[in-house]
Amino acid sequence: MFKKVLIANRGEIALRIIRACRELGVQTVAVYSEADRESLHVRFADDDVCIGPAPARDSYLKIPRLIAAAEITGADAIHPGYGFLAENAEFAEIVTASNLAFIGPTAEQIRVMGDKAAARKAMTAVGVPIVPGTPGPVEDVDEALDFAKRMGFPVIIKAAAGGGGKGMRVAKDADDFARSFQLARSEALSAFGNGDVYVEKYLMRPRHIEFQIMGDKFGNVIHLGERDCSVQRRHQKLIEESPSPAMTPDLRKRMGDAAVAGAKAIEYVGAGTIEMLLDEDGSFYFMEMNTRIQVEHPVTEMITGIDLVKEQIRVAAGERLSVLEMPPLRGHVIECRVNAEDPNRNFQPSPGKIHTFHPPGGNGVRLDTHVYAGYTVPPFYDSMIAKVICQGRDRPEALAKMRLALETFIIEGPMTTIPFLARVMQNPRFQSGDVDTKFLEREPDLMKEPG
Ligand code: MV4
Q1: Which of 65, 111, 185, 292 does the annotation list as catalytic?
Q2: If pLDDT is split at 50, 70 and 90, which confidence band does 136 have?
Q3: Considering the domain 4-103, what is its CATH architecture?
């Protein structure tokens, strides 16, 4: 096992990783920017190093400073968390070349999955379904239009280097196509420095369903069930749950087998997520693989009872997976992300000092947060300040518990998404499980304060 792990992150995930390390008897090193001096991850770690000014590009993204911090504190491994450098292949390479363990997959695995065309190719090779589309990037608009006509409209044009919805354009018909194609190309070029795009059949109302994967260095790969993350706004997930309301044992078997085959194809090591789209007709398609621990990992931890962060650390240290198949799923789990944002002002960030803080609690309620009364939410980073995770015997019980948890969660100071999330728990469509990636567009009233 490692002696000392440096956590190249901040906020709730830094606290989550410190907790896992402590349970394993591993020492920790926190790194922090000048804006995070008062943060709990600094207080809870055994060692801490200031790595620069507030903007992430001058601190949390500065690779040489992170490596230097690991060297001066005697760390033997780095955990990247999520965001920042978690899916940066070059970072993984430099960490390893510096004789430190990278707690995550190999640089090559990160690279393949970060290249959408390469990922699609790898999945297709092992029989994982991908959305019908061009096999690779299409160079000219006429070739692309030809393909779209054969496929049938609507189609979606996606950046090969993309993710998160950037460089993505839907074309309703042939007239619309040339403009959408050029827009996607130029957006891809400016966002990723690579203007390659490909064309796919556009699914009108897909659900976003992702499978949690764990692999070890002995070639074992398992999945730990799915999470339904269909409630999103501008490609930001707001609510995640497991099991998916759309899941059946047969569908889970087929989607889970595909997810495991995909991860095995690249001999995946560590925690990863296979994101899929589930169409209204029951067809499912590989979308992308995230090669990191995700924000919503507690949903899987609660439904399976497995500590994913401890498992990540053990596997990186060369241990075997502690389970070799999916344990029985325990009831229903739902997670709400609480952001310091004002839903009445188009979810505009609302940083500032928290005057009052009262956490929710009770049986089956988990709160992952780094904030406290007196803490000031800085304006420089992600606006997520807490995750509430609730477990019930079934979905209605989990939803009822979540509503109560949100209604008794007091944060005064910044505006938060808590009242908005409590309204979603009472929405009939949400309660019936009728969610897809256009849920909020079809329920715009949820974004407004009643009265
Ligand atoms: C799609 C799609 C419909 N059809 N692909 C959005 C993020 C990117 N990684 C893939 N995305 C989508 N790809 C086809 N062929 C709809 C989306 C999509 C979406 C997917 C998951 C969750 C939320 C979404 C919101 C809008 C669009």
Answers
A1: 292
A2: confident
A3: 3-Layer(aba) Sandwich (3.40)
